[in-house]
Design brief:
- The complex is a heterodimer.
- In chain A, helix 6 packs across helix 8 and helix 10 runs antiparallel to helix 11.
- The radius of gyration of chain A is 22 Å and the shape is globular.
- By secondary structure, chain A is an all-alpha fold.
- Chain B is an all-alpha fold.
- Chain B has 12 helices and 2 strands, in the order αββααααααααααα.
- In chain B, helix 5 packs across helix 7, helix 8 runs antiparallel to helix 9 and helix 11 runs antiparallel to helix 12.
- Chain B starts with a helix and ends in an 11-residue tail after the last helix.
- Classes of the chains: A mainly alpha, B mainly alpha.
- The interface between A and B is large, with 87 and 83 residues.
Amino acid sequence: MPKRKIFSKLYMVLIFALLYVPILVLIVFSFNTSKLNAVWTGFTLDWYRKLMGNRDILRAMGNSLQVAFLSTALSTMVGTLAAVGMYRYKFKGKAVLDNLLYIPMVIPEIVLGIALLMFFSRFRVPLGIRTLVIAHATFSIPFVFITVKSRMAGFDSAIEEAAMDLGASPLQTFLHVTLPVILPGVAAGALLSFTLSIDDVITSFFVTGPSTNTFPLQVYSMVKFGVSPEINALSTVMLVITITVALLGEKLKKE
Amino acid sequence: MRGILATISPVYLWMVLFMVVPLGLILLISFLQRGVYGDVKFHFTLENYRALADPLYVQVFLTSVGIALGTTVSCLLLGYPFAYFVAGTEKKHHRLLLVLIIIPFWTNSLVRTYAWILLLRTEGLINTVLLQLGWIQEPLQMLYSYGAIFLGMTYTLFPFMILPLYSIIEKLDKSLLEASADLGATPLQTFLQVTLPLTLPGIVAGSLLVFIPSLGYFFIPDLMGGGKHMIIGNLIKNQFLASRNWPFGSAISIILILLTLLVVLAYLKLLGGDKDDMGVM
């Protein structure tokens, strides 16, 4: 029996090592003085300093944050309203909508990317921040919807009825009764949407314009030219941002 | 009525305008002709679908499905015991372990691919260490092969397999396993006849979440395969950017959508899967 326990522990350690060692190596070598990467020659913050001086990278970072904030705001509003409406009302086409919302989660991302690219070019919408925001909101809405919906599952609709019976309008009921209860779900959905946006490579690749790079796309174009400690530093910054946001979201979901 | 309008119409409008219409556009354009300058001519044709029968493209499809299946199987074989062991640890460790599983899930897939390039390339860490230990005389060529693509895919998609597996194994009623053992079943029999069938929905959901995206992740073959090997994702990307043949690119996408629908419908109908299990979170 103890033998099996040792085996299961070893196995878990091995898998966790496989998951984390590559990422740790990447982070460690972002502080390495050598440009050659594979040998440790000394500690430096030069690569981070270089990032801060690189206009393209700073602009990409600005674009990514802007797109993430805007698309998160949009998808959180639309997704939350949808979850509330689907919970509260019965209406024609409810099943259709439910299925529609699963499509972006199951089709390969590349399909949504090219579909939107053709849509935008067909209707002559110039590619840039605006198209990125629309694309990111589109794949985020279902995730916000699901997160809020699961929060609504434990919601007692009697308190909504009570509020209405006491004379509250539907809007007042939503703002003062429903929203406070589902707020942790809404916040978790928003953070999820933010990480999805800031991490997205495939959809953004198609709907971004030639002059609007995002953070991950900047990494992509740099990696294509080869390995450099600057990419390590850039990746580390991205890692820190997403992991912070994701952990915050996890914490909210547990509450 | 006003409540329905206020809550439901935004999402309806959004999904129809930015998803249904664009997907419809793919379908439409897949039946049109490519113009001389890479534009689209409104002339009905089946040529784009006929062109897919070219052995060259059939090869890409087969390679793609092969890599996707291989990735799914290796994620499952590595991931099932892992999820099982994690679920079997003491309850107080669960939360920490789950966070440790989720972190790679939230880490940018491009960054994780790059991390492996750092390890595998000829001047990379693995070669440097092996050379210094004297185990090899010349650096090993590990990148730019099917093996590297396969590794990159498995590493990138592994968390998608783990989460549904873990959540179903954790909910598994342990008394059923004890009952099976009490009734004289060997551990293997219990596993095959009790554990496996009960965790099947997690296995299928995880497999879908690995299989489907792996068909489209074009940047892994680009970066780890050195652009020598193509999957469906690369083929589509090239039609839209390099050769500007949108109708043909659309036809490939339609096939990809059909392939995906087929897999998802099989999951929902044949295996009685639940749509909610697909939404990992």
